[in-house]
Design the sequence.
């Protein structure tokens, strides 16, 4: 397992260095940089930037402070800038190739300057967009829905990723948006915390400011495991948020089932939750599970679970269907945040990376997430706060 992890990190670092070097070589060519001292300095910068995100993530995980937080923030922004500059580089080379094929000479310096400038503008927009989630309104029918819940609003928050980047100000903005919806119930489907920064006390008051008539409920995601589940739960215990740990709860005739994200040996047994904790298949039911996957886990190993969640997700929902679940609320995908990762997410999750999907009476809503992980940006999609209006099916 350790060897695989080291190999994985090595591959990622090699890809990052290759991407940085390609950008370096292209910039040298586009802008005709010939001075040896300048090129050597650029190479050193490329080398340091190649592993900056991994190093900053490690440092902030060991000890969060202002200096490490700023380094992590800079590294995350730079990864996004790198992606945009690489896109611009590909376009520039394509333009150069086409112009040479057509025997037409373009002013390379001006073309490169214009396209790199556009890349910077797009990068800034992506960052702004990441910090301005929108409200997504949907309507969902549940069987045997009590009249007390007819037309009521359930708000789903997923993947807020509170920490060094999505700080207290961001959470307060999200809470204001939630409270403006006058929710009857708020459900948080994992990755509330980012898992990088252990200093979370500042989030207690904003979480307590959520106004929900029937409470705020939470299930864990994978990043609570990175943070340390005990740390996350210790913070939540000081708030109004109710941790629904592998249990069933009836709220005025609406049934909630909360199942934790599997973390190695702490893998929950969904069958135990459904079959021995008072679950009633006749009641209208909302299942909270972080990943948009089968709630049953076939793998008990940590590596197998990671594969199921990321690379080969189990998209068989037959067990939830058989148990009479009306609506499964999940997140995790972030909708890829930006190309090309948004395309990967669409392919990996077979189109189930964001939105409402129905199969008979079973429905799945996958939130694209409120916040971000890694580069704080979104392009061609926005963070979302999901407002679900309930009706009788």
Sequence:
């Amino acid at each position: 397992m350790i060897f695989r992890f080291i190999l994985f990190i090595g591959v990622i670092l090699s890809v990052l260095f290759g991407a940085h070097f390609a950008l370096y070589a292209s910039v040298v060519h586009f802008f005709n940089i010939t001075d040896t001292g300048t090129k050597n300095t650029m190479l050193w910068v490329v080398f340091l930037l190649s592993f900056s995100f991994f190093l900053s993530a490690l440092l902030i995980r060991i000890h969060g402070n202002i200096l490490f937080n700023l380094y992590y923030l800079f590294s995350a922004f730079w990864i996004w800038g790198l992606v945009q500059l690489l896109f611009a580089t590909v376009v520039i080379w394509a333009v150069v190739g086409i112009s040479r094929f057509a025997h037409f000479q373009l002013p390379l310096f001006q073309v490169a300057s214009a396209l790199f400038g556009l890349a910077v503008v797009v990068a800034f927009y992506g960052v702004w967009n990441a910090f301005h989630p929108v409200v997504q309104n949907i309507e969902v029918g549940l069987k045997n829905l009590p009249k007390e819940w007819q037309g009521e609003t359930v708000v789903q928050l997923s993947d807020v990723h509170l920490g060094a980047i999505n700080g207290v100000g961001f959470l307060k903005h999200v809470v204001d948006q939630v409270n403006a919806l006058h929710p009857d119930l708020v459900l948080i489907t994992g990755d509330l915390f980012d898992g990088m920064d252990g200093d979370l006390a500042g989030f207690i008051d904003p979480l307590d400011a959520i106004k929900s008539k029937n409470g705020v409920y939470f299930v864990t995601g994978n990043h609570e495991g990175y943070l340390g589940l005990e740390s996350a739960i210790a913070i939540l215990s000081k708030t109004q948020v109710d941790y629904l740990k592998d249990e069933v709860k009836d709220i005025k005739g609406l049934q909630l089932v909360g199942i934790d994200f599997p973390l190695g040996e702490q893998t929950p047994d969904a069958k135990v939750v459904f079959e021995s904790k008072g679950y009633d298949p006749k009641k209208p039911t909302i299942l909270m599970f972080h990943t948009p996957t089968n709630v049953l886990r076939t793998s008990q190993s940590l590596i197998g679970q990671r594969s199921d969640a990321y690379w080969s997700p189990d998209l068989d929902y037959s067990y939830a269907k058989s148990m009479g679940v009306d609506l499964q609320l999940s997140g995790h995908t972030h909708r890829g945040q930006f190309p090309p990762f948004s395309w990967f997410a669409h392919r990996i999750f077979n189109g189930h990376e964001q939105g409402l999907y129905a199969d008979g009476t079973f429905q799945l809503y996958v939130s694209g997430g409120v916040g971000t992980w890694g580069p704080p940006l979104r392009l061609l999609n926005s963070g979302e706060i999901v407002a679900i209006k309930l009706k009788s099916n």
In short: DSSP finds 13 helices and twelve strands in the chain.
